[in-house]
Amino acid sequence: MSDNPLTTARINRTVYDLRHWKLTLFVALCALVFRFLSGRDMRRTERTSRKGRTTDASYFRAASRRPAGWWANLPGIARAWIRLGVLGLLPLWAWAGWVPVALIAAAGTGLMVLAGVRQLRDERHLDRHVRPVWPAVAGVIGVDVEDNPSAWVDVPADITDPDAEITVGLRAADNDDEKRLAHLVTLFSQRLGVDLAGRIDYAGRMVHLRLRPDEPATWPAVADIIGVPPAELACDWMTVTGDPSDKKDTAATIVVRLPNDIVDDEPITESLKTLFNQRCAGEWLIKTDRQARTATSFRKPPTPVPPKRVDLLAEFPVPLIPSQTPREDAAEPTRGQS
Asked: I need a labelling partner for 32 at 20 to 30 A (CA). Which of 108, 191, 289, 312 fits?
C-alpha cells in the first residue's frame, strides 16, 4: 500500500503507484514480452542505440545500412517467429515426445544452413564485385559511405552476359543525373575492363548499365556530324541493313535519325554522304525524309555497260518471204503417197 494519504484514504482502497515493486516488476515483464515479440534485442549492449537496435531493420523490413550480422539484419517479424518456434518446442516435447521435436529441429537446422550458405555466397559476391567500387560509387551518387552497398548497387556475377545489367540507385531528382550517368559508365568500364552503356530510369530513380552492343565503325564520325555524344548507343540513331563494306551488296542501306533541333539538314546530309563515300565501299547517295527526320543512304546502282558483241539477228529478226511461208491448211500426205 502506498504511504500517500491522497491515494488511499480518499478512495478507501489499495493503490499501487510507480514506486511499488509489483508494478515495477509488471512493467519490466511487459517490456521483456514486447521486446521478445517485436524481435528486438533482449538486452542492450555497447553496439545498440538508445532504442536498443543494432541496425535500422524494422518489423517488416530487413536492415539496409550498418549491418551487424545475419541475426541483427533480419526483420523483426522473422526474429519473433524464430523465438516463438524455439519456445514452442518445449511444450511439444512434453506432449508428443522427442521424435517430432527432433524432426522440427532438423528441418530448422537445414533451413538455417541453407540461409548461411546463401549469406556466405552473397558476402563473397559483395567483397569481390561491390565493396571495392562502393566508395567511388557513393561519392558519385552522393550518399554516405557507411550505408549498405547492397541497398544501392547490384552487380551481376557475369557482366559479359548480354542480358546482365548493373543497377545503381539515385537519390532525389536533380540536374546532375546525366553527369552521374557518365561518371558511372566510366567508373564501371574501367573497373570491369568492358565497354558499357547506360540509361536512366527517371521514374524509379535507377541507373541501368549493360554491355555495349556491337556498333558500326562509322558511328563516332556520324555522332560528331549529327551533334550527339558518341557515348550514346548507335542503335538509337543508326540502322544498318546489309553489308556496306561489300561492294556487291547493292541492297545495303544506312538510315540515320536526325535530331529535332536541326533546322538546316542539307549540310548534315552532305557530310554524311561524304563520310559514307570515304568509309564504305562504292558510291553512295542520300535521301532525306523531313517528316520522319531521317536520312537514308544507299549505294548508287552501277551504270549499265553495253555488251561487246551484239547479235543483230536476235535483236531484229528477218521476216520470212511470203512465198516461203508454210501454209497451215496444206493437206497432210496420205499413207501410201510419196
From this structure: 108
State pLDDT tens for residues 2-12: 455 445 555 55
List, for residues 40-49, the tens digit of each pLDDT value: 666 655 444 4
**Nearest Cα to Cα of residue 53 among 27, 64, 143:** 64
Rounded to two decimals, the pTM is 0.53
- Check if the beta carbon of residue 244 is closer than 8 Å to that of residue 280: yes
- Distance between CA 169 and CA 206 in Å, rounded? 5
Residue 323 identity = S
Contacts for 113 with CB less than 8 Å, ≥ 6 apart? none
Strands ordered across the beta sheet of 165-169? 153-154, 165-169, 206-211, 196-201
Owning domain of residue 183:
131-211
Total domains present in the chain: 3
**Length of the chain measured in residues:** 338
Q: What angle do CA 288, 300, 250 make, to 5 degrees?
A: 105
> Is 37 exposed, middle or buried, given 0-12, 13-18 or 19+ CB atoms closer than 10 A?
middle
Cell of 260: 529535332
Together in a domain, 65 and 47: yes
Q: Which residues contact 37 (CB under 8 A, 6 or more apart)?
A: 80, 84
Q: By the 8 A CB rule, do 217 and 279 touch? A: yes
What are the tens digits of pLDDT across the range 159-186?
777 788 899 988 876 678 888 888 898 8
Q: What share of the chain is helix, strand, coil (3-state, %, to 5)?
A: 40, 10, 45
- Same-domain status, 197 and 242: no
Same domain, 166 and 184: yes
